[in-house]
Amino acid sequence: MRINTWFISSFLISIVVVIPILTVFSSFFEDTSNYFEILRETFFLEYIFNSLFLLFGVLILTFFLGVGSAYIVSFYEFPGANFFKWALILSFAVPPYIYAYSLFAFFENYGTAFTILKFLFGDGNYNQHIPKFSGMLGLILSVSFSLYAYVYILARSSFLYQSQNLIELGKNLGFSKFKCFYSIILPAARPAIIAGLSLVAMETLAEFGAVDFFSVNTLTTGIYNAWIAFDDLAFANRISFFLLLFIFILFLTENLSRKKAKYHLDSKGGFKKKEKNKLGGSKAFFAFSFCFALFFLSFLFPLSQMLYWTIKFPENLFDLNIIDLLINTLYLVSLSSLVLIIFALISNYGNRVSKKKILNVMSTLSISGYAIPGVILAIAFITFVAWFDENIIKALGFLSIKKVFIGSVLGLVIVYFIRFYSLAFNGIKSGYEKMNISVDESAYLLGYSKTKTFLNIHVPYLRNSLLFVIILVSLEIVRELPITLILRPFNFETFATTAYISASEDLLEAAAVPSLCLIIIASFFILLTSKYILREGNE
Amino acid sequence: MSNFFEIKNTTFRISDSDKVRNVSFSIEQEGDIVCLLGPSGIGKTTILRSIAGLEKISEGQITLKGKTLSSKDTHIDPEHRKIALSFQENSLFPHYTVEKNINLSARDNDRGNININEIIKILNLENILNHYPHQISAGEAQRASLARSLNSNPDLLLLDEPLSNVDQSFKEEIQVKLKQILKKLKITTIIVTHDSYEAFYLGDKCGVILDKELKQFDDPYNVYHFPNSEKVVKFLNRGVLIPAKVTSPKSLENDDLGVITGNFVNPVPIGTNVKLLLQPEDLQHDDKSNLKFDVIDKKFRGTSFIYTLKTNTNNLLPVFVHSHHVHQHDINDKFGIRKPIHIEHIVCF
Q1: Number of domains in chain B
Q2: The pLDDT of residue B110 is above 80
């Protein structure tokens, strides 16, 4: 029997990514410490309640912000519409924890808001009139303004590709604009909106930096505490499992509620560019104000806050070794993206050519890594390495491998790989889905081997998808906090960890410079990808 | 001497439950063209894919130039077969221009006597060479794919419905040119089509696949005139089967038409009740004849009319009449049939 190297490579890659998921499951067969008992009698219900409250708060807010802005820029023409089309995705550059620092700092006693009021109106007791955005409210706002772009991008793309005929049919039936939106446009975009909200939900439940900053106890905090304070990895994994289960049930319920409804028609006519309605007068003003307010609050506000502090406390700029941080950040980004791209590409091609069901199942399982919070992944990785080292390596008489994987760049890259594999895999997969299998077959018939087909036909074809995935993954790694924090080598800092450490030491002003650098780099990546994210037409 | 190409007792798997069984046919000489005819979904494409090596076979043997390509235990990968397959749907590489698509082959140093510029010209592709596949029509894509297949100088060329997307007005011209190229370059070809006229024109041999088996494999003339089963007759839709009784070694009798003379393709014992194949050109129009039937349908086919007549025993008879024929009939008119009726080749079942 011939050995199918593509199948084996693809299978092995999936195995690596599936390990943390299996580790999370395996926690049910292990003993836990008495932390669970303590937690159950004290804060466990509060953790669950807070997680749910945060989740639903963020889902509702991101739904309104994301769908509302996507609708306005997709269907209407007004001053600035073309600018907002891409400007609204810049909020991705601001991770929730940096938004949290800005929000808190602006409204705190004697904060930026106070300074502005004092500058404008002179001395006064403004603190008692300035609202305070701390705790759960601050957290919901920070996470929502940072993540609404997921819903915006997917809803917008769904609105753009909606059948013009369907909308014209609505008009023909005499529907009002609102009824058209409510009865035709919104239901047709439902799968895309749900997909966006599911990403928001996963990111929200996985959020660590902002949750920690506002001291809101959620299940993620519980996981972190179980590990840090009680060294109880099994229990940490068990909570993670419930988190995953919860996300799964939420979206399964939504899926079942659709029954057999289909949300798009298979159209052979291709993309028909929709005519946008031109707004004038107060309507144009409202559309502009809504988009500008959203752009301001989600991007300009945190950017200006960080910029303000950087200018106000320039010594922080010089205290920080920006070049080192930049090199570290870019080193991680380039190494991880390269590894992700290569392996996701091999895995996708293996799936395509071997057509084995087991690979399909493994791939589906492996891409669920994105649903696992970074904290869990990092902990699961440490658990696995410790177990492997203790039970296999040492048993075989070899030297410990812990140091090779824990507190090293290698370990960091491996866990990034597991966390963002889904992004890379799906990004490439969506490129592959556009390529008919007869393209491969034609190549074989022209004398190309599988490897040659891969290198000479597929890689050039997927060039744009690969570029998009590289930038997307880079963006995620630049923003990533918990994995880097837990697994980074000693004295190895990135912009994200430096900002977090300064903030956790109550030195918010010092967090401004790394935060600002992070926003600038992330914005740069976003601007590079915007061409792909926002593409219109039959490209 | 062994055949150039041969399929022996091979079963082709369309799906887990669906198979084309026990197919055998051969191409004796290099440069011959074989057409496989059959309705959609019968497994014609599967046969081509299996010959190309894109599907494996579980039974039988496929050989080319004396070398076994596929059998129960052997499977040579498609890239090592030197067989080109031109797909029915657009299979051009979407990120390359038509020109690059046509010139893309891993067998660059094995172009033989192929003159690609001539092929491009014959297939009318000069004006779209710099276009990308999404910028051209389905028919153009099909022709470009054909050019690419030809350019790879294959030992065996497989064409899956090669002209299905080509405009009707252009189809005949391309058929002529295609045949010229294939014959000139001596490229052995298997063409799959559901168009019997295309198959009869292009093929040196024709195979008819029905009911998951190869029902007939013969010269186009024989397939047309001497179909070997009622199913082939029905598929080709070239005539009707009417009841008759064999009355002598050279005649039979039908209740409506009376005595019919001719030469039996296969001898039938006298006195046997048979189903006689009656094709539109077997009966001739004659207004003066006493044998008259009602016209119930009339089809205009450009150069001819095909009248459908209803007999006294409710049989329906097709009759072919040249469209320049002076006396035209309308529905419900009486239509005369010349007697005596003589059929050159009597086919009955």
Answers
A1: 2
A2: no
Residues B243 and B225 in one domain: no
**H-type helices in A434-507, by residue range?**
437-445, 450-452, 459-461, 463-479, 482-487, 495-504
Q: Do B87 and A442 touch (CB under 8 A)?
A: yes
* CATH code, domain carrying B17: 3.40.50.300
| Shortest alpha-carbon distance between residue A14 and chain B (Å) | 27
Task: Map out the domains of chain A as residue ranges.
Answer: 43-312
- B84/A446 touch (CB, cutoff 8 Å), yes or no: yes
Same domain, B206 and B102: yes
With CB atoms and an 8 Å threshold, state whether A441 touches B87. yes
Residues B136 and B248 in one domain: no
* SS3 category, B236: helix
What's the domain range around B310?
Answer: 239-346
Size of interface A-B (CB pairs under 8 A): 69
Band of the pLDDT at B33, cuts 50, 70, 90? very high
Q: Any CB–CB contact under 8 A between B148 and chain A?
A: yes
- Written as one letter, the residue type at A470 is I
CATH class, range A43-312: mainly alpha
Tens of pLDDT, residue by residue over B262-293, are 988 888 899 999 999 988 888 888 888 888 89
Are residue B130 and residue B153 in the same domain, yes or no?
yes
B65 dihedral zone (left: phi>0; alpha: psi -120 to 50; beta): left
Regarding whether B221 and B332 lie in a shared domain, the answer is no
| CB pair distance less than 8 Å for A439 and B87 | no
Query: pLDDT tens, A405-426?
Result: 888 999 999 999 988 888 888 8
Least confident of A77-91, B292-306, B318-332: B318-332
Are B156 and B254 in a shared domain?
no
Residue in B87, B90, B92, B95 to test binding to A, most A beta-carbons within 10 Å: B95
* Last-in-domain residue among B232, B250, B268: B232
Residues B170 and B205 in one domain: yes
Tokens 């063409």 belong to B191
CA B312, CA B294: separation in Å to the nearest integer? 9
> In this complex, do B83 and A461 lie within 8 Å of one another by their Cβ atoms?
no
Condensed to tens digits (0 to 9), the pLDDT of residues A423-453 reads 888 888 878 877 888 888 889 888 888 888 9
Q: Nearest CA to B146 among B160, B129, B167, B134?
A: B160
Residues of B in Cβ contact (< 8 Å) with A438: 87, 89, 91
Domain closes at, from B181, B215, B232: B232
Cβ-defined contact of B91 to A436 (cutoff 8 Å)? yes
Which tens digits make up the pLDDT trace of A152-190?
A: 988 887 887 766 666 677 777 777 777 777 777 888 888
The two three-digit tokens of residue B169, written as one number: 């007005």
| Contact status, residue A333 vs residue A474, Cβ threshold 8 Å | yes
What b/e sequence results for A133-167 when a residue is b if at least 16 CB atoms lie within 10 Å of its CB, and e otherwise?
bbeeebbbbbbbbbbbbbbbbbbbbbbbbbbeeeb
Question: For the whole model, what pTM was predicted?
Answer: 0.75
User: B278 and B294: one domain?
Assistant: yes
Q: What percent of chain A has pLDDT over 90?
A: 18
pLDDT of residue A265: 45
- Provide the pLDDT confidence category of residue B216 given band limits of 50, 70 and 90: very high
- Distant-in-sequence, close-in-space partners of A170: CB < 8 Å, separation ≥ 6: A179, A180, A183, A184
Determine contact: B36 vs chain A, CB below 8 A. Answer: no
CB contact under 8 Å between A442 and B90, yes or no, is no
Tell me if chain A has a CB within 8 Å of the CB of B106: yes
Q: Which residue has the tokens 């991770």?
A: A95
Mean pLDDT of B306-315: 88
Contacts of B134 in chain A (CB under 8 A): 538
